[in-house]
Amino acid sequence: MELPSSASFRSPNAMQVAWHFPARSPALQGLVSHSVNSSVSSPGNSSPPCSKSDEPLSATAPSTACWVAIEQPGPWSSQALEPGGSRLPDDIARALSTWSDHGDIKVVLMRSRHRHAIHRMQETRRMYIAPLRSRPGALLRLDLQDVRQIHDMDPVKFIAGDIAAPLHPERVDLVCTNGKRDICCAQLGRPLLEQLEAEGREVWESSHIGGHRFAPVHLSLPDGRIWGRGGELRGSSHLSRAEQALESHYFSAGIDLFGALFAQVQISEHSWQVSASLDGKDYSEVVERSERGLSVESCNKEAVNGDIFRVKIS
User: Does residue 48 lie within any of the structural domains?
Assistant: First the structure.
């Protein structure tokens, strides 16, 4: 069964970008080590913190067609997008939750660690939209005068990139620091945030991105790449997990397939022939899905079964 390609990064209207960390960023090497070997404690539980997981990061990024990040100062609960999860009005929180229920869009809250004061809630709020598949490389910026403007927005147009908004010229990094959701994200995310900030990047604290056990986790926009353990690539979120496996396989070998045209053909119940074409070169491998066994995905949670996607080694 041939599946449609999840990305065509050769749009003539797209602002092409390829911002990323190398597989093991020297500047973040200490943070990567800290993520795996840290002394993060898991309150009320003698189990190791979930970030002690040695699960491979490859092909673990959540897949989506569009990311939306909305500035929301103040505290967040473990379920930041639900009514009562932040100081957003309940009707706005419900609207955003509905957006998130859409299969092709993911919404996160963001805040500057320098602007947590409640009075910020009365000021203009930043909003970023990254339509990964329809306008790859584009990061659109809105400045909301009133958060209730969200009621007038159509998330389907976000996915299509069909909104009147200027392009944001800089890369943006969103680092998950939501300790109410998982303590590893707070204790490991904040040092990463400070490191990126010291490098002069535009960086925001973020609500749950996904994958506490890979903390510190962050999302880079507009490329939509998700990183774990400080600077290791989990995958580009516009790709399927099988395509991410091919991407990570070559990325670890020093070949960056960002901007490639991907396609996949299922060849058995648990395997796919995945190909990518970039700059006149073709890359193709068999990707297999296998069980990873029991793994603790979040601190103070029971271990659950999951799966792993990786390139078949002949």
Answer: yes
